[in-house]
Amino acid sequence: MSIPTVDVSTLQSWLAEGRPLTLLDVRPAAERAEWSIPGSLHVDAYERLQVGDPTALADVPLPPGVPVVTICAAGRTSLIAAAQLRARGLPALSLTGGMRAWSLAWNTAEVALPGAVRVVQIRRTGKGCLSYLVGADGVAAAIDPSLDSQVYLDAARQRGWRIGAVLETHLHADHLSRARQLAEQAGAPLYLPVGHRLAAPFVPLRDGESLSVGPVRLTALHTPGHTPESTCYLLDGAALFTGDTLFLAAVGRPDLHADAAGARARAYALHSSLQRLRALPPATLVLPGHTGEPIAFDGEPVAATLATIGRAIPLLDADAEAFVTNILARIPPTPPNHTEIIALNEAGALPEDPTALEAGANRCAIA
Length: 367
What we know:
The structure is a single chain. The chain has twelve helices and 20 strands. With 367 residues, the protein is of the alpha/beta class. Strands 6-7-8-9-10-11-12 form a seven-stranded mixed sheet, with helices on one face. Helix 6 (149-158) links the parallel strand 9 (139-143) and strand 10 (162-167). Helix 6 crosses helix 7 and helix 8 packs across helix 10. The radius of gyration is 21 Å and the shape is globular. The termini are far apart.
């Protein structure tokens, strides 16, 4: 029996439309705990499905007549799950490619700011990667692009913008950068922080330097710690693109691609950088480069003011010694494939199929 399937782009459209669906995740609990699709129902049925247990999903309460999309890691076990549900008379489909393919799904949110400048947050819902288009008067800058270039080109065109600049906050370790490719396709200059290791031409941005793209003015604030070159971009004093330096309830990890001594030195640098950011006006809106939670198709931006973040992260009030001790004691597991991803990002290269390298949640934050 042929089991109907649904691809990522179609499911992404259905969720954006708010179509009635039941998403049934059948992966083991440990896999589910790390990343998932927002709003999905979980049943740890993987082992029972694998051995052909026909009752693996018998007790799952599902509303009649509502399409069910079954989800696993790579789209194979979910076919077994869909077959069992269809045998019960339920309209079930399997997600092609599973969560590995879902890592490239995305949605957007508009960020409300005063004045004419508009900010579009483009979110990889599964991985939690956040990138941005900042535009006005027909031109835009793209920050930390992590999806296919066409996503940004289309989003800009829909708003009457052309992309006039592409920027990165740092060398990423958990996803493949699309900055070089987007800059080439848009015919725009690529701006990177001084010290970035890209083995291709770019325009270096130094601490305190400003970049104007039409009426959009971005000022580089060098904030080493997560990486030596990490840099935040301040938009007209109103919003701050923090990359992986500062999140809404966490800070960047200082240990990637560093030995123990290097991680400690970076942790001290991170403390200084965070104190510099906290000296900005409390109403400054922080727009980070990642979030640790799956991103719903709700149109609500992942953002918070510096004042709100200060209350959410008590560690920001610690002195340097206490901060470093706490941070180094909380180092999470490294991102999957981070060594290979760093090497590709240094080369400015993309594999033909990035999903295998990028599958899994990001792990760049320490809460």
